[in-house]
Design goal:
single chain, alpha+beta, 15-stranded mixed beta sheet, 35 helices, about 30% helix, about 25% strand, elongated
Length: about 1500
């Protein structure tokens, strides 16, 4: 007894039937050959190729990793498309190809696994053979692991693992294998070193340029030479391939750094503080004879005492002194005053120098009302050899030279006397020449300073109190001394630069953009590819036919191949034949418990203990039964909601990419989620950084590709059955075709050739999904960028429209323009911000342009204090690109000054008669012979002696004081400097000054009657000699000789230009760095226009006041207001700067010709062979100090133009304040005071907009999208969306066309197990013949076999015209005349059920009544087979057919199982088909089973409540009766 649904039932005792085995007459025999078919990918040459590809990929990754580590990259990134393709596309293409091949390999392992089970010696149960499936990779992975019922399936497990590692790791990580980075390369090359041996011992001979460079560095912070740093002077070394010695502040090279060993010099100051210990006023207590002087005593903790005595040097504003201690007397009571009125004495002082800084001294001075501090300093000079590195900054002209400081500190020694005469360096430093190079205008009252303290105090704006209060005062003093020492050494570098250098060796490094392998990614890929290699090797070994026989002669993928496998074995056919009306679960449940074996190319049912399973169960209406089974999609991926989900995923991905593409183009992807990079470090080894964005997007693309590939795989599997279900088709389109082994474009071609358009579209999508993966892997690139945003700020300044107002003192004297001196002197009050010095430094020492200035233009500045500076991203541990400051773009006003120069029409530069005077220097009555009489016998002096007294250059044809003229010097003074005599030989020298054009007896500064006023740029080249002076005549009030005058040994050459200054304005869009207000770029919005406000007020006097001082002694001094336009102030100050004392004006009444004051070299350079103002010195630097080059008028004009523009740039930027403006900029709506005598309101001034919008560009790390890759991804996604929508609609129709899933062997075999004509065809013809048969057609649908059994399956149909049952929708209800004997609800009419027969006598429509004696519950045909061969030929089944016997299942009970209620009906008998007697198969005897009906089924109420479950349980019961 067995139980069913919890109730005991008796086993069904079905009668046994003798079956005669059928031997086909087919010519196709496999007895003589062993089954040797294998899928293509499992054949040794293909799988070996896959293994070989894996080995190649592994080797490539390892080799590239090793090469990249050894050579710091693979190749240089030149930005070409080939580099991008090779570094981004190729790795992903290889990875995708690799994974695709493994996926094909996995598919072939999965689809042959069932046959491997069948071909085993013991066969296999149905659940491991006929019904075995593994759709997804994870299903195959799970089924590869061992369980209690099965062993480990190594081939399946390893193939699934290899595929899993491929799509989860290899594909995503391949896109990040190569990145582009800046790599430093080092090369050992020959070097050269500057040879100083000819200059040893080094002597300090400071030149004007030496002081200029020192002042420029200390006050303007400009680099004068790369080899002179704040702490060291470095002997130059350079690669031997360079042609010249690189001595300047900047030089370029293709290398990133130079490294070599050279000599380094430095000086150190060790200072000890000196405090006030004594204060003595008149009378001097130690010496009663000393009166009216004040003395102070300073002392150090070590005992050094210094006494300073002065009468009035510090009485006005205090001051500072930096001098030597060597020459100071040690006698306290012995006073010896120097030229500044200071006397010193010392006691117990071993130091070299002292510095004293004091506030104002007074008569009643006490220690409480003034402050004085001092420093006693010991100086040590060092030298030593060490390694130095020259660093070139990319994108900047600055060159930095660094030394190995610990190495130098270890190697250095004090400079020996044979290397340098240190006393000359010490004397040059503490000399009084500093005041010559940093003179203040006499109108600017400033504290006293002496020696280098003059430059040190200028650093503090000449404020003693600031110097005292500054804690870095001593450090700044040490920097000053080191800088001057370095500049003195630099002079020696210049002197010896023409000597042959010495040879040495060094290294150079080069910063190259290289494609490198990311170590972290390489290690992961190496490990995974190695694992895959092992896994694939296992697959190779385990899939050999000797280890894993398949028992196949041909590809089992086509349906006809399955038919041929089952056609020969009666047991297999009987086990499957009756399952045509069963559900998928029923089929798998029944077949699961039966054992099959694949022998000789045939699937056989084995282990038959009895034939009880061959009994005929009760018949069931198959049409009615399958109509109750809910339809299911062929794959879970074909589910409507999953297709909708896929479509939504594709749409979201497309939308995301499109939005990100738009956003990246508009704003940039800068958020942390996009740019964050993980820095991978293992065991202290930096494996570089990985950006998750590239990996995640590649993983998304791989996932979409896998999803789409699963759809494509399913559709390729069922497409032949869809074709069969649609209409009768030949074998080439149905039974004999399969797409399972066709992939990508091959599948597209096959589908298109057969007009399977949906399949073609889906396969095209699968191919495009692979391209999509490749494109997605290269869509991202991480690099520097900017984030734009806007900020509104208040406008504070505008271009000056109101003239500058200043106080002045007017005194009615003979000095020209004496009231202008206050305004002019104010231009040079702050040496630290001197605009003339700034321009000279900018041009001659390659300094940077002033803030808010570029290419000659100066722009109205804005205050960036309100611009937000917060960070907006976190890029992780490693930043790929150096971050810069924010950039701001704003529309503002710009101003520029330029020159329009032309040669003088009436000045003959060739004929020197009108600008040279020839003197007979042998005339002893006229010339004082202080020089050797043999030096010059004839001399040429600039200018005419009459008129002009050798000071004027007349510009007209006729020299006249009433005409046009200018001066050779900056004013009407003679030259007395500078000669260039070496070893007694007179060398060439140059003189050059800018001077105003004068007329009709005018003098500086009253030289212009209208503005803009022209001036003259001159350059004179000759061989001068100093020291000549003219004797005063007897009538002269003077006695002796006059001032020294400069004579030329021969006629000099001169170039002169008449230049008119032009100041113009324009609106511009300017991009500025917020860090230092450096202008990055600008664009002029409109054409430059002349500035009407630049020349309006020429030191215009306004309301006069009461006299400041009454009485004859006051000289009638008055205070007045003057207004001066910025253009006039600029040009007037510029043309007088070379002689600061001349601001007071020329004394017209007491006109006395003087020589230039060589004691003022603040804004000019005087050194052997050169006497120029800073403007001309800047011009000379622009031609690389080629003195002869400036004799060319075009060169002279070009350099003057560039210099003038730079001067105005620095003038405009000088001392600008957002509250008070500057010389060129003013606060918004500034106006002159209302109480001024003539206040003016300009009607043409537009009202200023107080708000301006700044377009800020913040530097960020950006995740940049490749435009081609983005468009490829979006186009492919759009196609996939359309294809998925088409597939979603088509899949609904597919579900109705295919009533069951067609997945396993059993699913296909059940469709053909009862199809006699199809099976006969399978027996008779080979697969090769069947593929060539283009006549025979088959169809999948409802048909009635020759035995009258209704089934849903595949059968051969006749010629066209016959009506196949599936031409009518399978579940459509037809109503016309309803028969009472038809089960209720079927509604079948007579016309509908009248059967039609084809040429083979196969009923085209099933009978409507269940009394047609159709299939039993097993679905077995009533035709039984005998085990003995009947001897019938082809086409005859060879069985004997018995008369039909009623089923033990009555009609009433059949209705009870499937109808909700009992319906009475009349019996209906179908019409006999024509020629039935001739064509129907013989019958066989069937022993009727008398087992009671109730023993097979549950009760009616159970069946009605769960018909499918009852049916499934019943089938299981019958299957157990074997």
């Amino acid at each position: 007894m067995r139980e069913y649904s919890g109730k005991p039932i008796e086993e069904a005792k079905l009668s046994r039937t003798t079956v005669k085995e059928y031997t086909p007459g087919s010519t196709e025999h496999h007895n003589t050959a062993a089954p040797s078919w294998l899928p293509y990918t499992l054949r040794w040459h293909i799988i070996s190729s896959i293994l070989g590809l894996t080995v190649v990929l592994e080797l490539l990754v390892v080799v590239f990793h090793v090469i990249s580590s050894r050579d710091s990259g693979l190749v240089d990134d030149d930005g070409s498309g080939g580099i991008v393709v090779a570094s981004k596309f190729v790795p992903t293409v290889l990875a995708v190809t690799h994974v695709l091949l493994i996926s094909i390999l996995l598919n072939d392992v999965k689809r042959t696994q069932a046959f491997a089970h069948l071909a085993s010696p013991q066969g296999a149960l149905g659940n491991r053979s006929l019904t075995w499936t593994a759709d997804a990779w994870w299903d195959a992975l799970f089924k590869g692991f061992p369980t209690r019922q099965r062993k480990t399936n190594w081939a399946l497990l390893c193939a699934a693992l290899a595929f899993m590692f491929g799509f989860l790791i290899v594909s995503p990580f391949s896109s990040s294998l190569f990145v582009t980075q800046d790599i430093i390369f080092t090369y050992e090359v020959p070097f050269r070193k500057l040879d100083l041996s000819s200059a040893l011992p080094l002597q300090a001979v400071p030149l004007g340029a030496t002081y200029f460079r020192t002042v420029g560095n200390i006050l303007q912070n400009v680099t004068t030479s790369a080899w002179i740093t704040e702490k060291y002077a470095i002997q130059p070394v350079w690669p031997a391939r360079l042609d010249s010695v690189p001595l300047g502040p900047q030089f370029s090279d293709s290398m990133q750094t130079w490294s070599a060993r050279t000599t380094v010099f430095n000086v150190e100051e060790n200072c000890e503080r000196m405090n006030l210990v004594g204060l003595y006023s008149q009378p001097y207590s130690n010496n009663r004879a000393i009166t009216n002087w004040t003395s102070v005593t300073l002392s150090t903790p070590s005992g050094c005492t210094l006494n300073v005595t002065t009468k009035d040097a510090f009485n006005s504003y205090g001051g500072s002194v930096w001098s030597s201690l060597f020459n100071i007397t040690t006698t306290p009571n012995s006073l010896s005053f120097d030229g500044d009125g200071l006397s010193y004495s010392k006691d117990n002082c071993a130091q070299d120098e002292f510095i004293v800084v004091t506030t104002k001294w007074s008569t009643n001075m006490t220690a409480s009302n003034f402050t004085i501090v001092g420093q006693a300093c010991d100086t040590r000079y060092y030298t030593g050899d060490t390694d130095v590195t020259v660093v070139f900054n990319e994108g900047s002209s600055v060159v930095r030279v660094n030394i190995d400081e610990p190495q130098y500190s270890h190697n250095r020694i004090q400079i020996p006397t044979g290397t340098a005469n240190l006393s000359t360096f010490q004397d040059a430093f503490v000399s009084q020449n500093w005041s010559v190079h940093l003179r203040q205008p006499s109108q600017n009252l400033s504290p006293f300073s002496s020696g280098p303290a003059t430059l040190l105090s200028a650093l503090y704006n000449f404020s003693p109190q600031q110097m005292i209060d500054n804690p870095s005062f001593v450090q700044n003093a040490g920097k000053l001394k080191q800088r001057f020492f370095g500049e003195l050494i630099r002079d020696k570098f210049d002197e010896t630069s023409l000597n042959n250098p010495t040879d040495t060796t060094g290294t150079t490094t080069e910063n190259r953009r290289r494609v490198v392998v990311v170590p972290a990614v390489a290690i992961v890929l190496e490990a995974i590819l190695g694992i895959q290699l092992v896994l694939l090797a296992v697959v190779f070994l385990k899939t050999r036919l000797s280890r894993r026989p398949l028992g196949l002669f041909t590809d089992p993928a086509p349906a006809m191949s399955i038919a041929k496998l089952i056609a020969q074995d009666p047991g297999t056919l009987r086990s499957l034949e009756g399952l045509h009306s069963s559900t998928l679960e029923e089929i798998r449940s029944v077949v699961a418990e039966q054992r099959y074996q694949l022998i000789g190319g045939q699937v056989r049912l084995i282990d038959l203990e009895d034939d009880s399973h061959l009994s005929t169960p009760p018949e069931i209406d198959a049409r009615q039964t399958m109509s109750t089974i809910p339809t299911r999609p062929q794959s879970f991926t074909f589910g409507l909601w999953l297709l909708i989900t896929l479509t939504l995923l594709l749409s979201v991905t497309l939308t995301a990419i499109a939005y990100l593409y738009w956003y990246s183009r508009m704003y940039g992807l800068y958020q942390t989620a996009f740019v964050y990079a993980f820095n991978i470090t293992i065991g202290g080894v930096d494996l570089s950084n990985i950006n998750p964005a590239s990996i995640l997007t590649t993983l998304l693309a791989v996932s979409i590709g896998l999803w789409w590939r699963s759809l494509e795989t399913t559709l390729r599997r069922i497409q032949p059955f869809l074709s069969l279900a649609k209409k009768p088709v030949t074998g080439d389109e149905g039974l004999s075709v399969s797409y399972i082994s066709s992939y990508l474009l091959r599948a597209v071609w096959k589908a298109s050739r057969r007009r399977h358009w949906v399949l073609a579209a889906v396969c095209t999508g699968a191919f495009l999904s692979e391209i999509f993966t490749i494109a997605m892997s290269s869509i991202w690139r991480r690099g520097p960028g900017s984030l734009p945003f806007q900020v509104d700020i208040q406008r504070q300044l505008e271009l000056r429209r109101v003239p500058r107002l200043s106080d002045a003192t007017l005194q009615f004297t003979s000095h020209a323009g004496n009231y202008k001196q206050t305004a002019l002197a104010s231009l040079f009050s702050n040496m630290r911000t001197s605009w003339i010095y700034g321009a000279a430094v900018q041009i001659s020492l390659n300094g940077s342009e002033p803030p808010w200035s570029s290419d000659g233009w100066s722009f109205v500045p804005y205050n960036f204090a309100t611009v937000p500076q917060t960070d907006v991203q976190n890029t992780g541990n490693v930043t790929m690109a150096p971050m810069t400051t924010m950039n701001v773009t704003v529309e503002t006003s710009g101003i520029r000054a330029r020159l329009e120069c032309s040669p003088y029409e009436h000045l003959n530069l060739v004929d020197s008669k009108n600008w040279l005077t020839e003197w007979d220097l042998t005339n002893t009555s006229q010339w004082n012979h202080t020089l050797s009489s043999n030096t010059l016998k004839r001399g040429f002096e600039l200018g005419l002696s009459d008129p002009g007294d050798n000071t004027l250059l007349f510009l007209d044809n006729n020299a006249s004081m009433t005409g046009n003229y200018t001066t050779f010097f900056v004013n009407n003074k003679r030259f007395q400097c500078c000669q260039n005599i070496t070893d007694g030989q007179i060398g060439s020298s140059s003189v050059g000054y800018w001077s105003p054009n004068l007329r009709n007896g005018s003098y500086y500064p009253d030289f212009a009657t209208s503005w803009p006023a022209n001036f003259t740029v001159k350059w004179i080249r000759g061989r001068p000699v100093e020291g000549y002076s003219e004797k005063y005549s007897s009538e002269s009030e003077h006695t002796g000789s006059g001032p020294h005058r400069l004579m030329f040994a021969e006629k000099p050459q001169m170039a002169a230009l008449n230049c008119m200054p032009i100041i113009e304005t324009a609106n511009a869009s300017v991009t500025v760095s917020t860090d230092d207000s450096h202008v990055i770029s600008f664009d002029l919005i409109d054409e430059p226009q002349s500035d009407p406000y630049a020349w309006s007020d020429d030191f215009k006097q306004h309301k006069s006041y009461e006299g400041l001082c009454e009485g004859p002694q006051c000289g009638n001094i008055y205070s007045i207001n003057i207004t001066t336009s910025h253009g006039i102030l600029f040009v007037t100050g510029l043309l007088g700067a070379a002689d600061l004392n001349d601001f007071v004006g020329t004394n017209i009444d007491t006109y006395d010709i003087q020589s230039e004051n060589i004691g003022d070299q603040t804004f000019n350079i005087r050194e052997p062979g050169l006497n120029v103002d800073l403007m001309t010195y800047s011009m000379l630097s622009l031609v690389n100090y080629d003195h002869d080059a400036l004799l060319d008028l075009n060169t002279l004009e070009r350099t003057a133009q560039q210099t003038f523009t730079a001067l105005f740039q620095n003038f405009a930027s000088n001392n600008v304040s957002f509250e008070t403006g500057g010389y060129v900029f003013q606060p918004l709506n500034e106006a002159l005071p209302a109480d001024l005598d003539t206040p003016r309101k300009r009607a043409d001034t537009p009202p200023a907009d107080h708000t301006v919008t700044l377009k800020v560009s913040r530097p960020v790390e950006l995740l940049q999208m490749s435009q081609p890759a983005a468009w490829v991804c979006m186009i492919i996604l759009a196609y996939l969306i359309v294809a998925s929508v088409i597939l979603a609609f088509a899949s609904r129709r597919y579900t109705k066309m295919l009533l069951r899933k067609v997945d396993s062997i059993a699913d296909v075999a059940v469709l053909m197990a009862g199809s006699e004509r199809l099976l006969n065809l399978a027996r008779e013809k080979s697969m090769k013949d069947l593929k060539k048969d283009h006549v025979t057609k088959a169809r999948l649908g409802w048909f009635t076999g020759a035995d009258g059994t209704r089934r849903w399956g595949i059968e051969i149909v006749g010629d066209g015209g016959q009506r196949f049952e599936t031409d009518i929708p399978p579940y459509k209800v037809y109503k016309s005349e309803t028969f009472s004997d038809v089960p209720g609800g079927l509604g079948i009419t007579m016309g509908d059920i009248a059967p039609e027969y084809n040429g083979d006598g196969v009923s085209q429509l099933p009978p409507a009544s269940p009394r047609d004696h159709g299939t039993d519950m097993y679905g077995y045909s009533q035709t039984h087979y005998d085990e003995h061969n009947s001897g019938h030929g082809s086409g005859d089944l060879g069985v004997e057919r018995m008369p039909l016997t009623p089923s033990p299942i009555s009609q009433g009970h059949g209705s009870q199982m499937y109808e909700p209620s009992q319906v009475s009906h009349e019996e209906y008998y179908p019409i006999s088909p024509p020629y039935l007697e001739e064509r129907r198969a013989p019958s066989v005897d069937i022993n009727v089973d008398n087992t009671p009906f109730s023993s097979y089924f549950t009760h009616e109420e159970e069946a009605a409540s769960n018909p499918v479950g009852s049916r499934r349980s019943l089938l299981r019961r019958f299957s157990r009766q074997r």
